[in-house]
Specification:
- The protein is an alpha+beta fold and about 290 residues long.
- The protein has 9 helices and 10 strands.
- The N terminus is likely disordered.
Length: about 290
């Protein structure tokens, strides 16, 4: 006896239609969240899926690993293992990055106003509380890039709420820049500057000599492409061996060196340790 209705839910036809256009899809349960992993894949013990950038070729046929389960394969979408999910699904989701798209998710009126003033116009889709702005091109997704604004693209999912209106434009550098975090300002730290030598006579003819040396040290740290920590230590050692005994080195000079090191990712603790170790090596700890 043929069933009079498709018991897999109202969202399956939309999912199959989207997949046919090259958009990877997956069902969402209530609360706009993906279906959970099966017991074999719980806590990613299976190693994840290859496109999750984790080791192990998980071949689980169930709806596991969130956005990474999104697919364009109608055989998987329409399979018995996905049948229960479609019956219980509250919405269809898609993987924007897998479709070569980026979604700027604007969560409220203030975010929409900001986007209209700051971002290139593109196709828009109305959401429950705001809008999705769709751009052609993929980038790394990120949440809370500014108040009320999320980026959904690679390694993320978005609800399918219709094709939207307007012409889709190419992903611009303005949108890409939203996920670039400004570096935190360097933290100041109290460091020990060697006191003047017993003679009190500075061997350097002009302050310019010291300024040039500090500038060269900053440049050496900034130019380091690897072994940054070792470079910082060797640079501190060189500066102290030249200027550490005459008393012309000041807190302002050491702050410049620390700032350069922190701009390369060194922590305050690492900078302090490198400075202290250089002092000890040169026998300046108690000078």
């Amino acid at each position: 006896m043929t069933q009079p209705t498709d018991m897999r839910g109202e969202h399956l036809p939309a999912a199959l239609s989207l997949a046919a256009t090259g958009v990877p899809v997956l069902p969402l349960r209530a609360g706009k969240v993906p279906f959970g992993n099966c017991p074999d894949c719980a806590k990613n013990v299976c190693g994840g899926r290859p496109n999750m950038k984790t080791p192990g070729p998980c071949t689980c046929p169930h709806l596991c690993h969130g956005w990474a389960a999104a697919t364009t394969d109608p055989g998987i979408i329409n399979s018995p293992t996905w049948e229960r999910a479609w019956r219980e699904a509250a919405a269809v989701a898609y993987h924007p990055g897998g479709a070569g798209l980026t979604v700027v998710d604007l969560d409220n009126a203030e975010a929409i106003a900001w986007a209209r003033a700051s971002l290139p116009a593109t196709r828009t889709v109305q959401t429950t509380r705001g809008q999705h702005w769709l751009y052609q091109g993929a980038m790394q997704g990120a949440n809370n890039v500014r108040p009320g604004v999320d980026i959904k693209s690679t390694m993320a999912y978005a609800r399918w709420l219709g094709p939207g209106t307007g012409t889709m434009t190419a992903l611009s550098d303005v949108v890409r820049a939203l996920t670039v975090k400004e570096p935190a300002p360097p933290r100041s730290v109290a460091v020990t500057v060697p006191a003047s030598a017993a003679s009190g006579v500075c061997p350097h003819r002009t302050p310019t000599y010291l300024d040039r040396g500090i500038a060269m040290a900053e440049q050496r740290i900034t130019a380091a492409s690897s072994a940054v920590h070792a470079t910082v230590y060797r640079t501190f050692l060189a500066v102290l061996s030249t200027h550490g005994r005459c008393g012309c080195l000041t807190d302002a000079h050491t702050a410049r060196l620390f700032n350069a090191a922190q701009a390369k990712g060194e922590s305050t603790r690492h900078c302090t340790d490198a400075w202290t170790n250089a002092l000890t090596t040169l026998g300046l700890s108690h000078v």
